[in-house]
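Supplementary Methods. Inverse-folding protocol.

Structures were first reduced to a discrete structure-token string of length 368. This string, shown here, constituted the complete conditioning input.
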């Protein structure tokens, strides 16, 4: 894939200036500086895990279009690769990613390559970022002595508390084939959807902070987005969560009470995707997207047009239940009033339920 990017798009990922770091070879010095030590011959496991992540990125794009030199698809692929590189750089620069040498293979524990947690900030015009003002705004709602922003050659890392984002400003919209379906499935008004759909530039934010809690990562993204509202922000998107939140809603979502409620119960349909399709017989399939960020399976249900809000609340309750440590698998049942919930594998003939993450269908059965 990297060679294809070089020949088709003229992008040399390996030798790009953003991916060249000067790291100490001495472990003691690396510890003093708080960065990762340079390793000349990394352990094969580390190399394999990084290769698997690049393979995953390659598998998500229209490969035929890339090979044909489609500029839009090439730009999307290039952005995804550099986002992954940015997460690796953050781990190295912060000293969080320890790269084992080949000789350590027999004694080192398995390496876990960090996965990109990506958010997109959508803008109605190319923004002029005032990071000092943004950090001041965040400081008012999330006080911390660690707030800082650091400039790199082509990027900025913005830090507040335990959180950090690598921020890349891109003067073109998020590719329509990635974001339009997400915007279309949101519950917002046609006007708000149109505003987000018509964004002309965006900022790719790669979470590189110390929190491993998906909830707190989302809170951090909301606060960063709200702080950049004066720069002309029109929305916050998370493709992997299946959500796109308009600017008009952000001030409400970052209110302390709203954040406390969200920590208690994730707002399905706002923080996660909630899609629906009407069938010819009038029934409606509804399914979530993004539950995998909390390590849980997505949920789906075949119901009526009128039952949308009840199903949304049920999905939120089930996610909260699973977040408390309870495991739900296909074949499990639960009581709900005079009905019994049955959790099933999705039927193979329903292509709308296909995806790369686990999903359970929730069925209702009347109790005798």
């Amino acid at each position: 894939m990297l060679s294809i990017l070089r020949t088709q798009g003229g992008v040399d990922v390996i030798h790009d200036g953003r991916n060249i770091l000067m790291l100490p070879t001495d472990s003691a010095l690396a510890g003093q500086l708080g960065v990762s030590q340079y390793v000349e011959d990394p352990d094969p496991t580390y190399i394999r895990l990084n290769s698997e992540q690049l393979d995953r990125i390659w598998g998500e794009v229209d490969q035929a279009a890339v090979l044909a030199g489609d500029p839009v698809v090439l730009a999307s692929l290039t952005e995804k690769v550099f986002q992954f590189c940015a997460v690796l750089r953050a781990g190295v620069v912060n000293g969080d990613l320890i790269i084992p040498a080949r000789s350590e293979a027999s004694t080192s524990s398995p390496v876990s390559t960090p996965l990109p947690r990506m958010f997109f900030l959508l803008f109605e015009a190319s923004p002029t970022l005032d990071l000092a003002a943004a950090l001041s705004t965040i400081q008012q709602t999330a006080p911390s002595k660690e707030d800082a922003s650091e400039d790199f050659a082509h990027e900025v890392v913005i830090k507040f508390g335990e959180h950090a984002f690598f921020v890349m400003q891109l003067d073109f919209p998020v590719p329509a084939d990635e974001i339009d379906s997400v915007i279309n499935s949101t519950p917002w008004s046609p006007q708000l959807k149109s505003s987000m759909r018509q964004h002309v530039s965006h900022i790719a934010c790669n979470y590189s902070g110390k929190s491993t809690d998906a909830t707190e990562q989302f809170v951090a993204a909301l606060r960063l987005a709200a702080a950049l509202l004066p720069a002309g922000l029109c929305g916050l998107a998370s493709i992997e969560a299946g959500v796109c939140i308009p600017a008009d809603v952000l001030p409400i979502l970052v209110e302390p009470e709203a954040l406390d409620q969200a920590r208690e119960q994730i707002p399905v349909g706002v923080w996660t995707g909630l899609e629906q399709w009407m069938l010819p017989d009038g029934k409606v399939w509804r399914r979530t997207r993004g539950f995998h960020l909390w390590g849980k399976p997505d949920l789906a249900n075949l119901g009526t047009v009128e039952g949308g809000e009840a199903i949304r609340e049920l999905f939120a309750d089930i996610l909260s239940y699973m977040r408390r440590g309870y495991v739900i698998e296909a074949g499990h049942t639960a009581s709900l009033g005079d009905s019994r919930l049955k959790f099933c594998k999705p039927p193979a003939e329903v292509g709308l339920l296909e995806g790369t993450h686990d999903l359970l269908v929730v069925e209702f059965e009347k109790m005798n």
